Amino acid sequence: MIIYGLKNCDACKAFLKSQPDFELIDVSITPVPENILKEAIQNFGEKLINKQSTTWRKLDTETREKQPQEIIRLNPKVMKRPLVKLKSGELLLGSQVSKD
């Protein structure tokens, strides 16, 4: 079970605290595998991009107009977090992630 996020992200830290069996993959160091990213884009579309983030606001217009997959490849910190891959293979994103 894997969580794709950032080691300094508060939401990722909170999730890991409640679910210590998950492994954190820091997307600023290790990119999300291509097959996982494609599936996440199919499942969540534009919601995979955190358009409220500082990273997004700093992007130029040309970059913002690219496809979500390319935007995340160029700027991994713009991805909404956490992106969680369950043992079943199901992907959950952000507020979908249960913290119980």
Structure keywords:
100 residues; alpha+beta; Glutaredoxin; 4-stranded mixed sheet; 5 helices; 4 strands; globular
Q: Which strand order do you get reading across the main beta sheet? A: 2-1-3-4
Arithmetic mean pLDDT = 91
CATH architecture: 3-Layer(aba) Sandwich
**Tally of domains:** 1
Low-confidence stretches: none
Q: What percent of the residues sit in helical stretches (DSSP H or I)?
A: 25-40%
How many strand elements?
4
Task: Describe the protein in words.
- The protein is α+β, with helices and mostly antiparallel strands and 100 residues long.
- It has a single domain, classed as 3-Layer(aba) Sandwich (Glutaredoxin).
- It is built from five helices and four strands; from the N terminus they run E-H-E-H-H-H-H-E-E.
- A four-stranded mixed sheet has the order 2-1-3-4, covered by helices on one side.
- The longest helix is centred in the middle third of the chain and has 11 residues, at 34-44.
- The relative contact order is 0.24.
- The model has no long low-confidence stretch (mean pLDDT 91).
